[in-house]
Amino acid sequence: MTLTKTSLRTVTLVSALAILASCGQRDRSAPRPDPQALECMTRAMYFESNRSSRDGMIGVGTVVMNRVASDDFPDTVCGVVSQKNQFAPGVMTRPMTDRGLPLALESARAVLQGERHPLITKGRFFHAAYYVANYNNIHYVATAGGNAFYEKRRPELVTRRTPPTQIEGLTGG
């Protein structure tokens, strides 16, 4: 059997694609995130932690997921992220165009597949780390990626009234 130039190119291309496809095999046991939830989570991380650390992005994602699990917030990722006055202005409409997008996308996938920031177990809120909040019900749990993460508690149960020192490198990846 003789191969023509065209069929030889086709065989070579198909072989190369098969090799490339096998190199990028992902863990089939992890569920594939819903595309709409992935878009919304990526947007929250991108606009709240753009050019931040992975820990900061996972922290934002953990807050989103803690809100989804709470009766006090919408029960979907997109419902939480698009809630008025909760996230960065234009979070659902502005373009995501710079070098922070790949990290936000990878971090969003990780959170939607179950990864959480280990210090933000119950945290449902955050603000920029430089901001000074003068409320007596804020219990800070972590600072990462330029954000201070916190829980709201009854004032007598607040034991950390100022954001802790920023810690990085706690999340996988």
Please tell me about this protein's structure.
The protein has 173 residues and is an alpha+beta fold. It has a single domain, classed as Arc Repressor Mutant, subunit A (Orthogonal Bundle), CATH 1.10.10. 39% of the residues lie in helices and 10% in strands. The chain has five helices and three strands, in the order αααααβββ. The chain has a three-stranded antiparallel sheet with strand order 1-3-2. Helix 2 packs across helix 3, helix 2 crosses helix 5 and helix 3 (54-69) crosses helix 5 (101-112). The longest helix is centred in the N-terminal third of the chain and has 19 residues, at 5-23. The termini are far apart. It comes from Marinovum algicola. Keywords: Hydrolase. InterPro entries: Cell_wall_hydrolase_SleB (IPR011105), SleB_dom1 (IPR042047).
Overall shape: it is: globular
CATH superfamily: Cell wall hydrolase SleB, domain 1
Q: What name does the CATH topology carry?
A: Arc Repressor Mutant, subunit A
Number of strands: 3
Helix count, per DSSP? 5
Indicate the multimeric state: single chain
CATH architecture annotation: Orthogonal Bundle
The major beta sheet can be summarized as: 3 strands, antiparallel
Structural class: alpha+beta
In sequence order, what are the helices and strands, one letter per element?
HHHHHEEE
Specify Rg, calculated over alpha carbons: 21 Å
GO molecular function: hydrolase activity
Protein name: Cell Wall Hydrolase
Keywords: Hydrolase
Domain Cell wall hydrolase SleB: 53-150
